[in-house]
TrEMBL record:
PROSITE patterns registered for this protein in UniProt: HTH_LUXR_1, HTH_LUXR_2
Pfam family, one: Autoind_bind
Record's keyword annotation contains Transcription regulation: yes
Domain of life: Bacteria
GO molecular function: DNA binding
Boundaries of every HTH luxR-type domain copy: 185-250
Full protein name: LuxR family transcriptional regulator
Organism: Paramesorhizobium deserti
GO biological process: regulation of DNA-templated transcription
Length: 258
């Protein structure tokens, strides 16, 4: 399998777009017996209140046409049992929505998550394997392969290819990640100027506008202008909220002078 993964890695590298790389990975997954692909990326898994964030990227292959709408716009992603488990583990896992089959998602099957269960059962997306990918800065992705229909032998088949699927998922994610733009990486679509980010970063360490002005050699009104502009773009009511939202969106870096 290592030779096959090496070949897949090479094919991924020559694909120039994210969608082309996803298609390449999906072709490899189908050779392992999976019939659909779900790939998501979330810069910050949870908001300050602990609620699961909607992913900034959700790519689907061979799934019902309305799944994106349900998972993102109707926020099924927040109550998805597979996602709730994936946030808590870094180990690939098999899941099954057959009520007679107990898997690691069984404890997350509640009245709250029933809309997700109903949707998947209605469309025959009963079982699959998910690989959680947790990154150093806290961002998070999952790569999921799905098998349609109730097939008692799928768990056995999936377990046989679990290690290979995990390796494929990791290789694919690395290839996909390098093509992400700022809109995907910060999850908000907010674009701050370099000076706005700099001023907000210093503010996050408790510096006043006067102190920031001395460090960056700009006037106090100019610093205030940058801070206010950043807050407006972030939809923040004040500087403190702007810092919190910018941090959530991973827009801030440690200032070089601190």
């Amino acid at each position: 399998m290592l030779d096959e993964i090496s070949a897949i890695t090479n094919r991924l590298s020559v694909r120039e777009t994210l969608d082309d790389r996803i298609d390449e990975a999906f072709d490899a997954m189908r050779m392992m017996g999976f019939e659909a692909l779900i790939y998501d990326y979330t810069p910050t898994p949870c908001d300050i209140g602990g609620q699961v964030e909607i992913p900034s990227l959700l790519k689907l292959r061979n799934v019902p046409g309305d799944m994106y709408d349900y998972w993102c716009n109707r926020e099924y992603f927040r109550i998805d049992p597979v996602q709730r488990l994936a946030m808590r583990t870094s180990v690939p896992f098999f899941w099954d929505y057959d009520p007679d089959v107990e898997t690691r998602i069984t404890r997350f099957l509640t009245d709250e998550t029933k809309p997700v269960s109903d949707f998947l059962r209605q469309h025959g997306m009963l079982a699959g394997v998910t690989v959680p990918v947790h990154m150093p800065r806290g961002d998070y992705a999952t790569v999921t392969g799905v098998r349609y229909g109730a097939q008692r032998d799928f768990m056995r088949d999936a377990m046989r290819v679990l290690a290979d699927f995990n390796l494929l998922a990791q290789v694919f994610h690395e290839a996909a990640y390098e093509l992400f733009d700022d809109t995907v990486l910060n999850g908000s679509g907010v674009r701050l100027t370099e000076r706005e980010r700099e001023c907000l970063s210093y503010s996050s360490y408790g510096l006043s506008a006067k102190e920031i002005s001395r460090i960056i050699d700009r006037s106090v009104p100019t610093v205030v202008m940058h801070l206010n502009s950043a807050a407006r773009k972030l939809g923040a009511k004040n500087r403190t909220q702007a810092v919190v939202r910018a941090t959530q969106c991973r827009l801030l870096e440690r200032p070089p002078a601190l």
